[in-house]
Each structure stands twice: as structure tokens, then as C-alpha cells.
Amino acid sequence: MNKPTNQTAFKAVDILWDDIDTVMLDMDGTLLDKYFDDYFWEKYVPQVYGRKHNLSPEQAEEALLAKYRSVESTLQWTDLHYWTKRLGLDIIALKQEIDHLIGVHDHVVDFLQHIRSTQKKLCLITNAHPKTLEIKLAKTGIGHFFEVMICADEIGFAKEQVEFWHGLEKILSYDKRRALFADDTEKVLRAANQYGMGHLLHIAKPSSQLPTRHSGDFPSVAHFGEIILP
Ligand SMILES: [Mg+2]
Q1: pLDDT score recorded for residue 9
Q2: 225 CA distance to ligand 1 centroid (A)?
Q3: Residues 148, 118: one domain?
């Protein structure tokens, strides 16, 4: 029998909305189900790679994991052209083959609609490669909610690097003390915190297929339905 793993009590996070005029949101895991990305890199790519090199699924997964780890938290990790070259596979085509797995988390559309109805500026801030962003927006239709969408690629650093945040300030006009940034990766939130972002929020359930894991360091919710809205 499957025991439910997501038994965290409802704990609404009271954000100081009057102190916030820019809302910045990560995409994968925060707005969209990270199951797509996990499945793609951990299962689908190894399957195709294994077939090409005559490896068992386990051997292929192990070989690829080592390659992924070598560029973790860098821009190369999300660079589809880098992986196309390094693995000899058409990564963009492979993503499109399973794009039916791309999904928006519950409560996200309501949250985006609500923020748009306020005077606050709404921005998408992602490490995703521009081509991945294009595939995901085509599938989910959430792009129209955002005034600005920034890929880390444009800045030249990943969000885990504090340089990203200083670079962002140069191309996006906003007051960091009056900005809220939400992300499912604590390492990213730590870099944003180090930079001086005024308000931070952690998303504790990035994938529909994995249990909720709250952060001990940042205000943390499983989904946007737990947030008290402005
Ligand atoms: Mg994320």
C-alpha cells in the first residue's frame, strides 16, 4: 500500500506585499513540474544514449550522471547545444519528443493572474536555455503573464553564482530591497540572499513525483496556494 508522503501541515506564508513591487519567479520546479526535467535527464537521455552506445540502462545512467555532475551549477548544465555536442544527441529534438510531460504546478496560474492584477512587476528569471524556455512556453502558455523573461544565458552566469544577480541589476531596473524572488533550489536562494535580495521564498515541492522538502533557511511553501496574497 502506498503511504502518503506529503503530510506537511498547511502553513501559510505571510509575505510583506506592501514592501514588494517586483516579483521574480524561477521556472523549472517553481512554476513547472520538475518531473519533466528529472525524467528527461535521468531516464530518457540515458535510454537513447545507451541504445546508441550499446550500454545497459544502468551503465548509461551512471556514465551520464558523471558527465552531469562535472558541470553542475554552471551555465553549461542548461546549455542544450553543449549537451548536443558532448553527447552526440539532438537534445532539442529529444525534449520535443516528450513535451507532453511538461506541466504547470497547481495554483500557479491563479497566482500569476493575481500578481498581474496588482501594480507589481512580474518577471521570469530562469537558468533554462532560451530554446528550453521556448519549448516550455509553447507548451504551457504562461509567457504572457510576464513583463520580462530573463535566461541566465543572457547574463553569462548561473543563478547559483552571485555574479548573476549583479549582472541582472544591470539589465533589469528594480529595487532589490523591494523585490521578492521564489525558487526551488536553496543554492540559488543563498546566492540571491548574498547579493541582497529583499524577500526570498523557497518552493518545497518542485516535482509532482517527489516528496515535499521544506527549507530550514528560507520561508518555504509546497505550492503558491499556501501564500497569503496581496
Ligand atoms: Mg528551479
Answers
A1: 57
A2: 18
A3: yes
